[in-house]
Amino acid sequence: MEHLKTPKISIVLPSLNNRQYLEERLQTILNQTFTDWELVIIDNYSDDGAWQLIEEFAQKDSRLKISQAPREGIYVNWNNCIRLARGEYIYIATNDDTMKPDCLEKMIGGLEKYPECDICHVKCEIIDTKGKTLKGYWERLASSQFYGDLINKSHIRFAPYDGILYCALGTVYFGPLQLLIRRSVFDKVGLFRSDWGPEGDFEWGMRAALVCNTLHIPETLVAWRIHSQQSTNIEAHKTSDQKVRFIEMVQAALPILKKYNPEFYQRLRLEKLLFIYKRQQLRAGIKETNKFHDKVIYVWNLFQISPTFLVEFLYRRTLFPRNQSDDFTYIRQELKRLGLEPDISLCCDA
């Protein structure tokens, strides 16, 4: 029977009170040129009309599998959706974003052609509440600047290259909407943790990138919407507390290498990998503190915890200006030390 047929792709869409953008999102899924998919929606008892809209769409298309569950947090709902998914590939459709009609067709085509890759990654544009492109936003992201012109070329990024970059660029996979993921990846690295707040996909992304190869398709096939109701707070990324969370998530993600690449794991130097976020934490903490006396105490406490960081910080401060390019220089040196030079492990015609 048709309803028992296993779909090639499971699109999972966690839902909570986003009726304003949900209809457009659902329509971009229905408009996909690749049609062998199911759409798994779990709504957390929305009270803004989102559930009623979902029911309307489900009545018209049997590929929608819908249900409701209590509100337990964004990543709990993501995981619940993934557990219900039956497809060979999984696409997480954040409910306020959009994608081009040929998005799934091109992403699955890439992964079918390159079975050594477990994740397909595409370029993303940033839009406002009305769907207008915010020009230059994507290009200013640290990952876009780091990869430079390579972001405009098809290539395979071999693990653990992207995973190590998570120690410097904030996030390499800007959002799940950019990724088509083999279902086997979740068996390999696990689901999303729910104890990191709204940034838990950072830790999962790093975990996956440390052990999975990524195919990059240089086409802008998805759009990420910025609006006041979204869970990701852009300003929060600038705080010292956020840098501390990044440090903790890096420490949580790296041990997966013990299982899949123990020899490489032994070569890692955690203090070196954490240097950039600790420096960002220091700068943010000083900026957040008003009195000079409190600034001194903040700096002293940080250096007490990590004296090795103090030595590296003073060395870098002497030789390099205080700008983002120093972060790129630093992580490139660390990649070279680990034997992950781009011309060896990064570039590949795809």
What does this molecule look like?
This protein is α/β, with parallel strands linked by helices and 350 residues long. The protein folds into two domains: 96 residues, Spore Coat Polysaccharide Biosynthesis Protein SpsA, Chain A, CATH 3.90.550; 246 residues, no CATH class. 48% of the residues lie in helices and 15% in strands. It contains 18 helices and nine strands. Strands 1, 2, 3, 4, 5, 6, 7, 8 and 9 form a nine-stranded mixed beta sheet that branches. The mean pLDDT is 87.
Describe the structure in brief:
The chain is of the alpha/beta class and 350 residues long. The chain has 18 helices and nine strands.
- What is the radius of gyration? 21 Å
Please write the string of helix (H) and strand (E) elements: EHEHEHEEHEHHEHEHHEHHHHHHHHH
The end-to-end distance, rounded to whole angstroms, is 37 Å
Number of helices in the DSSP assignment: 18
Q: How many DSSP E strands?
A: 9
Share of helix among residues?
A: 40-55%
Largest sheet: 9 strands, mixed
Instruction: Write down the domain tally.
Output: 2
The averaged pLDDT comes out at 87
What is the general shape?
A: globular
What class, by secondary structure content? alpha/beta
Low-pLDDT stretches: none
Percent of sequence in beta strands: 15-25%
List keywords for this structure.
single chain, 350 residues, Spore Coat Polysaccharide Biosynthesis Protein SpsA, Chain A
